[in-house]
Amino acid sequence: MSWTNHLPALVVAVPLFGAFGAPLVSKAGRIPRNVWFILIAVLTALFSLLLWQHVNATGTAVYVMGGSAWNLPLPSGMQLPVRILLEVDSFGALMALIGSICTLAGALFSLQFMEKFTGLDKYVALYLLLTAGMQGMVLTGDLFNLFVFIEIASVASFGLVAFWRDRPEAVEAGFKYMLISTVGVMFILFAIAFLYGRYNVVNMGAIGANLQYGLPEKVALIFLVVALAMKCGSVPMHMWTPDAYAEAPAAVTCLLVAVSQASLYALFRVCFSIYGMSLGSSAVAWAIIVLGCLSMFIGVTMAVIQKEIKRLMAYHSVSQVGYMLLGLGVGLLALGNPQEMSDYGMTAIKGGLFHLLNYTMYKPLLFLCAGALFYAAKSRNLNDLGGLAKKMPYTTVLFVLAAAAIAGLPPFNGYVSKLLIYESSFAVHPILPVVAMVTSMLTLASFVKVFQTAFLGPEKEVFSSVREVPQSMLLGMGLLALVILGLTFFPSWSLDHFITPAAEALVDKASYVGAVLGGGF
Amino acid sequence: MFSTVVSGYGFWNLFSWLTFFICIAALVLWFRSQGRKDYKEDSPQDEIFYGGNPVPRDGADITVPASSAYWGFKKALRGFYVLLDSWHSGVATDYVAWLVFTVAIFALLLAF
Amino acid sequence: MIGNLPYVIVGLLFVYGLFAVIFERNLVKIAVGVSVVEAAANLMLIVYGYRSGGNIPVFTLGGEGGSFVLPTPQALTLTAIVISLATSALMLSMIMVLYRHYGTLDVREIRRLRG
Fold first, then answer.
1. In terms of CA atoms, which chain A residue is nearest residue B3?
2. pLDDT at C65 over 70
3. Which of A328, A332, A400, B92 makes the best surface tag, with the fewest CB within 10 Å?
4. What is the pLDDT of residues B34-84, one digit of tens each?
5. Where are the domains positioned within chain C?
6. Rg, C-alpha atoms of chain B
7. Can you spell out the DSSP letters for A25-70?
8. What ipTM was estimated for this complex?
9. Does domain C2-102 have CATH number 1.10.10.10?
10. What pLDDT was estimated at residue A79?
């Protein structure tokens, strides 16, 4: 058994080990702590890249925690997946890779950004714990394990959002996030209890194989969809998003974006791989599309009028999640019908997944630029900033890159994924791409406002001593910008190698179930 | 590597977009260079007009603040924004109320 | 119908906890409401594991023959109880820090982040 079989467990175990080792290593000083932080982040990124290659080469990887084979027969002769399984298909491996890139970028950024603050050993421990929770969410194969990793990631993020606890607003934001997140996760536990009571298994593949769409399954679906949509930040449960994203330190917001995308992964795993065809062209698909349209419109109209830069970007986060819900809702609508699927369904799912990949690259870059502005100019209020372009040229260029990507300007990667979403949603109803395009225009409007007020304009005397941010922060931002440029220049290569395997793994419920139940489906 | 992304009704090719952009950019820059011959940079021709008053030296006195950007947009959609502000009240328990409200709406949708 | 009584009671407990979270003003009462919601979810797992006439799921102590209640939801519930312990502790300590900063425990007063 070669060591690559252990990769799924390594991707979760390495940041977990790093989190628990961080307070010990920090006793030795500042340099060992920073070295440990970057080493663990680089190792996680390396292992998730190897895992992605392994899964694309050899198909869905199933790993049992505990070592022995996952399909041990029970004494009655029946074969059931009864251990804690990690099941990684192309979609999960892609999410793990994306998440680890965000971790590495945020880790590089926070080396210098957090230097002036105390308690940094706990910061490193919580940050790596959040990474471990996020990777566990996307690699797991059963529902209760998903609940446990969602809680790990959530509790770590409560601590990180309230990290600057001398600031009352930060603790308020942490409390509000904690309240709604705990209630939502209890909804998820209720749904798991319903599904367990019906099928006596918590494994996602096993539930998907035996699912009969009756009343308890409908209730469980409602609880799961609404609670996971809350964790992503979709309207009308989005109100924690501006508070939490604005008050967290910038490197933490970079990782919170990736964690909300892991919740989106869980939402689509539930809809496509557990429920599957029974949801095609039903009310749930239309409800997800309506949630997507509402999120897009309300998110961006609230964003245009904001005065604080990170709150503005967090409202944009809400609206971009609406794009993904729209794309994947259209795909869910077409799921049962092979003709519609080949017409617009697969394009919609590919558009939604490509938008997920693009968003998780340009949004953390935007938040890191806002963090760089906060580090240099000591203010997050757009009324105070101004004329910083000549003093911070690298930050300006990176901000323009990310803002053009989020606004969907050609030639950047945001444009390609939005094009796929517009064209496929037009086939369902013409009003959907109209809402999407109006959102895109208002997104461009609000980022022109941010660029003009923060970077352009006459130089202020109060900022006469502002210099460019330190090298490690630029390195973190540059990593994300490199990935954005790669996706910009090679869109069809990225679509063919990253997105199409993930989209096909997502809609193919039979192969997801078959990997666990061994063809007995 | 510059191959085309085909979406349902259209396509996207980076190479052709860049070619188009470079041609148009060249044209625009040529138009822009056909200016007046008597313009000199950094001369009194370059000063901003501040109503006849002397221009303040500190940039903070002449910036347009961010709160006044899009004031017309906000005024035109005032009813909509009053409604949205009442929803985003900031009270923590209202957030949970919205979550329960969404569960209720979904339950109504799925029951029929 | 009488066999459904445990489920109905757990559902009522869940709704009761949700009412406390949504309509109470004092932060500590909201935290108590969250604890009631968590207790209801844990109890739901146990109730779903019950088999009528079942013994405790320990092979050597439950007596020979007969049926056992399912042990898996008991393991799931233990995990969920530990998780809710951690979140309750964090929530109460955050309420303490909020009181120190704002001077009030009224959730309608703690709204500097709005709009």
1. A492
2. no
3. A400
4. 877 777 777 777 777 888 888 888 877 788 888 888 899 999 999 999 999
5. 2-102
6. 27
7. HHTT-HHHHHHHHHHHHHHHHHHHHHHHHHHHHH--EEEETTSS-T
8. 0.94
9. no
10. 62
